[in-house]
């Protein structure tokens, strides 16, 4: 039975996240952190790599798929329901706010009639490789393997057989049966196991409190709220870091090699996430992230990395988990990310832009932050002319990417504005001069007057959908003919089946990789925003609504959409898709952002 990426929903506790399938199986869970080894890795292999199924018993091999699913209101508590010939059953899944150990709580609730249920637990530590020793301790199931151990607590009798633990039980209307799985280091004794029902109330309350700060009043309120909740779920609470996605190696090209590990904090993705959360009223997250940034990049500016681990770790060595077959055979499964060593000049602009926005939104100034910003600008001053790998992290040769230069312009522009508008002190005349120099160079070398479009790299003919952000940065006004020409060129050359590719992948000339990929959702949302900015609102609304239709049944996006198979592809759920969705909704709702105080 193929589980499509859109068949999964996310639960999480702002330290890690699990993917729950429409069949009631948790097929992905890394503990204790997003970037820890998975103890359920069936997503990238099969059941033998670890999963935790709870669903109606069925006579055949195929598991019953849920009749409907939803999140309980504005929370990350998932409700999966099955209508069966004998009754209706609901499975409530969530990860409560973390106190000591991380827990996954699953409550089976009889809604009508009675339903025979099946539970199967296969814990496989170390990304599906280690079969743990299991034993009963104080009435709980305890599984241990290497540094990891988990405890399963439930009033339902669980029996071990064939390297799995199973239970058969019946739930009738009005009955609720809890299962609690807690992780902890194997050298420690049993952590306090929480009461499932108290945890349910607490988790609901926690989300209600978080949502009480939600400040978006435009159209598509529920869709924007779901994206904001998803972004919050991707933040790593103890440090303020934000992961790009909670998964690794969900393929951009099903069956292909474009499989990457996203369980880290990219400066680019995190700053964009931060801007979206600020847009929705969340200043605390911005403050926490700024502190993470200051701690993480402390040191010499030339040592700045484009991504870090959740606590600021710098070594994210990339390796392949060759025992995993990969999602629908997409190999390799990569752990770690070699892009960590790349030069991506755009991140300087993204960091400066986010810090400028945070300052405008009223985040109190931090003298250390400004000192670091100045160091970053010093580095950029000597390096902005270098070729780089660009925001798409190409694995081919470095190039003079136009988007990178536009973002270098953005970095100096925001520095100038921080001095002029917000009273920071610095060599503003020099920054102004650099800003103007970069502007002139981009307009001369990065623009193709024949086709009336900016190009992907200096002197190239290829287009890059990242150029759609030019009007958002303020590099040129929206009504500049070069901006309009670029938007129209992207529409002409990079649209497939109504959505936008980030660049042409034919021949692997841009990214140096074999195979194709789907439409990059962020680029399609950037097109919505760009069309709105140039006054083509109807077209923008039409595209935005088409993009809304790509969300799965619980409102989640992966990184890309493959029009060939009409499926979501790439890591899931992906911050880089939910962020521009929020910005596009703001733009269409006519609320103010981009270079001005954010108020939605
Ligand atoms: O396509 C090749 C690259 O794909 C990944 O990068 C993409 O995801 C990043 C995280 O969301 C995003 O910041 C970047 O802009 C995207 O291109 C992967 O992480 C890279 O290793 C890979 O080269």
UniProtKB/TrEMBL annotation:
It is an enzyme of class 3 (hydrolase). Coiled coil: none annotated. GO terms for molecular function: alpha,alpha-trehalase activity. Its EC number is 3.2.1.28. Gene3D superfamilies: 1.50.10.10. Keywords: Carbohydrate metabolism, Glycosidase, Hydrolase. Its cofactor is phosphate. Pfam families: Glyco_hydro_15, TREH_N. It catalyses: alpha,alpha-trehalose + H2O = alpha-D-glucose + beta-D-glucose. Pathway: Glycan degradation; trehalose degradation; D-glucose from alpha,alpha-trehalose: step 1/1. Residues 4-182 form the Trehalase-like N-terminal domain. GO terms for biological process: trehalose catabolic process. PANTHER family: GLUCAN 1,4-ALPHA-GLUCOSIDASE, TREHALASE. Belongs to the glycosyl hydrolase 15 family. This is Trehalase. It comes from Bailinhaonella thermotolerans.
